[in-house]
Write a structure and sequence with these properties.
10 helices; 39% helix; alpha/beta; 6 strands; binds iron/sulfur cluster; Uracil-DNA Glycosylase, subunit E
Amino acid sequence: MSDAKRELLEITRAAHAWVAWHEECGSDGLPAGDPPPARAARDDARTQGARGPREEPRTPRAEPERPAFAPPNRREAAPPPEPRKAPAARAGAPALPIPSTPFEGAAPASAERRTRLGVLAEQVAPCTKCELAKARTQTVFSRGNPDAELMFVGEGPGADEDAQGEPFVGKAGQLLDKMIVGMGYARDDVYIANIVKCRPPGNRTPEPLEMATCLPYLTEQIELVRPKVIVALGATALRGLLGPGEGITKVRGTWKLYRGTIPVMPTFHPAYVLRTPTPEVKGMVWSDLKQVLKQLGRSVPSRKD
Ligand code: SF4
C-alpha cells in the first residue's frame, strides 16, 4: 500500500471515530447534511456492521426543560431578563402586632366588659407612647355600645374628633351615622373605634410605627367587645386589623377573618365617599353593608341616600 493510500485510510478512520463519538454523546453538532430518513438508514446499516446490534434501542434525547422566562427558541433568544425583585420593605417599618390566634375563653359578661373597657380608656388617656401624643388635644377612645354585635373600625381622629374626644363626629362621622341608621340600627347601637387614638397632625395617615404602638389598645377593645362582625373603614383600618395586603379597592366587599374568628367586611371610609360621592361608590358601600346585615341575620332595609 502506498503512503498516500495509508494516509487516506487513517484520515477516514479518524473521521468515522469522530462521527461515532459525537452520535454516542447525542450531540447535535454534526454536519446537517443528512435528512432524517438517510440518517436512519445509515444507522441501520451500522447496527448490522462491525459494532453489532444494540441491545436496547436508543431512547430519544429529552428536550431540555425551558425556564419559565425563556422564549421558545433559545438559540435566537436574547439573554434572559433579570428575575423581578420583590419591592424592598420600607426601612424601619415595624411588623404590626396583630394576633393571629383565636380568642381564649368566653367573652366577658356585660358588666365586666364595661368595667374593663373603662379601665382601658383610663390607661389610654395619658398615653404618650408614640409621637402622635405631642399634637393631640386628647385621646379618642371609642363611642357606642360595648355589647354591640357590630363594630366599625376607622383610621384615627380628625380635627372634630380631637376637639370633642369622640370618634366619627365630623362630616365623615355624620355620613357614617346615616349609614348606620340606614342599616336599621340606632346611632349608638354599634361600637366604633380607631386604629390610633390620637389625631395625626394635618390628618395625615398614621405611620407604621404609630399604628404598631397603638394597636394593642384596639386589640384589647375587640377582645372585650367581641363583636359578631367588624366593618373596616378604609385602607388603614384594613391594614391595622389584618396586616399589609391587597388594597381596599380590590378587597372591599369580600369577607376576611380577624384572628380566624370574627368576619371582617372591608369597605370605603366615609371620608372617601364624601370626596367621591358618585352613585357607583355609594352603591358599593351599600352593597358591602347589605352583606354585613345578611351575615348578622338582619333584614335589609330599602336604601335611602
Ligand atoms: S396614638 Fe396611641 S400609642 Fe400613640 S400616644 Fe396616642 S394613644 Fe398612645
